[in-house]
Amino acid sequence: xxxNTDLDLQILSEDYKAPISLEKxxxxxxxxxxxxxxxxxxxxxxxxxxxxxxxTRKLDYERRGPTGDTDALLEVPVDVPVPSSLDRCSPTQLxxxxxxxxxxxxxxxxxxxxxxxxxxxxxxxxxxxxxxxSSSVQALKRPAPQDHLSAALAPAAKRPKVTENNDAVVIGLxxxxxxxxxxxxxxxxxGAGEPCMILDKDALQIVDCxxxxxCAIPGSLINEVEYEFKSEASIGRRACILKICAANPTxxxxxxxxxERTLPSVELHLDLGVLELNKPPFLLVRxxxxxxxxxxxxxxxxxxxxxxxxxxxxxxxPAKLSFAFSQHANxxxxxxxxxPPPAPPSSSAPSHRWSTTSTxxxxxxPPPSPVSASLARQIERDKAKLGPQRYLxxxxxxxxxxxxxxxxxxxFLKAIAPSVDLERPHFTREQIRLLAYExxxxxxxxxxxxxxxxxxxxxxSMDERHAIEKIFxxxxxxAPEESAYLLKSGYYEDMQDYTAAFVQIRRARxxxxxxxxxxxxxxxxPAQSRGDPDRRLANNxxxxxxxxxxxxxxxxxxxxxxxxxxxxxxxxxxxDFGPDVYNEFRxxxxxxxxxxxxxxxx
Length: 602
Fold this sequence. Notes:
- The chain has helices at 3-13, 30-36, 44-64, 91-96, 106-140, 148-153, 282-296, 370-383, 403-416, 429-434, 462-471, 480-488, 493-530, 535-550, 552-559, 574-577, 579-600; strands spanning 169-172, 175-179, 186-187, 196-199, 203-207, 213-218, 222-234, 237-246, 250-252, 260-262, 266-276, 300-301, 392-396, 437-439, 560-562, 565-566.
- Strands 3-2-11-8-7-12 form a six-stranded mixed beta sheet. A four-stranded antiparallel beta sheet has the order 1-4-5-6, sandwiched between helices. The protein has a two-stranded antiparallel ribbon with strand order 9-10.
- Mean pLDDT is 72; it is low at 139-166, 249-264 and 303-373.
- Strand 4 and strand 5 (203-207) form a beta hairpin.
- Helices cover 40% and strands 13% of the residues.
- It starts with a helix and ends with a helix.
């Protein structure tokens, strides 16, 4: 391995999110100084001092000559010809690009930095995936009698006990529904035997009845986990469905090679059957998922009716694995009906949400009287006049759910294939403001539906239901009948406007997927087959649109600086797709940025 390759790996493996302070710049390595000079995570003064410190350190190193300690990065010359394409630059070249005296374009410096950070993210994500996949494979390859997969598929009487010290937990599945996998939506065919889910310290793996991997998801890529429980089958035993939403899981390639392809975000609904909730394997499954949640900072939601025994800090003595398989594996479960709220203590707005438990204990408050419930609903109606802005937090929204993310993609497609007439979504100024920030769970409305729910069950669309779930993601669970009441009762008019914004962005996300395919089929493929004068540009345009169509990660790298910041300048050079494409997209991007600043008052 060459020295330059070693240096590239050092750069790609560096922690780009490590805190950097002005007082400790002299303690940083040369690589860390160069990173600090270009990262937007630190203030302007620190970036300027880091740039000056790196330049001074390099000058002193060159004057000192080959004596003393060597520094691989400081040995690389910076006064070199500017490369014609940043795509062909190594990580070292991208990192040193801003120090090149021949580079006089601020846009290209920013582009080089963005490409470097994209390479770093892709490299570190790939390492995480490889580590997780290796762990999953090792779990499957353990010889008997420690082979967990063989133990899971063995008759119940021969299954071993599971302890906290096991590397992996194996649990049977009644069924698995997947949304977002390349093979389609809905029920996944797991065979006629006993499929299972395997959890180790790094990843979750779904294995069919023949032991073949269906899907592997590293814990680092999980966005959200939710437990859904059915009513008790017997004392301490309940049917459980595990819902997992993850970004960019991997799936084995169809050609049998040891490669992986990037998939869109996926959602899994795993029917675990009837389990004893205060014994393994459920407690061990829960422990793994809780560890991932703490390590990777994703929400882990319990069904509101989760029994209190699940909060136990340590599992009891190990017990035999219990796998309960229903003959009706495809039958879905619904969450328990939620009960009416407690009566408010005074004429003020109620301080409790609509109660989701009904244990019949003496401490449970009685259902609200018609007078108090009516008063609470009137209070909510009055509050609705303040508008949906009252539900917003100060946390910027994730870019994928913002109009600016959609608009940037459509403008790029318009620049690269102007002859294709694309459908465009329309967002009002208010919707752009509403979608710019995350909802604040503590500010969401208090639900006070009438005790008799038989007369107010209007139908709502699936888009509206998903919008409500998105808004209340960090708050309490909202049942389907509550969603209908929230949108149709007339007491929460501002929530109707808030939901409409999420419905619009959800439909726009589907629209953009179709737009990529249309641009390829109607614009770029025909141009490529005709043989454009500049063959390289035609091929580059096809390749970039194919990548953006197939990978959410490519879209993020191309149109964003981070999970909460969109690009302000193009992430490509004029030579990549042609000056006409660059100039058209740059003009559109400037217009979008100015509009966002005006609307959001930034």
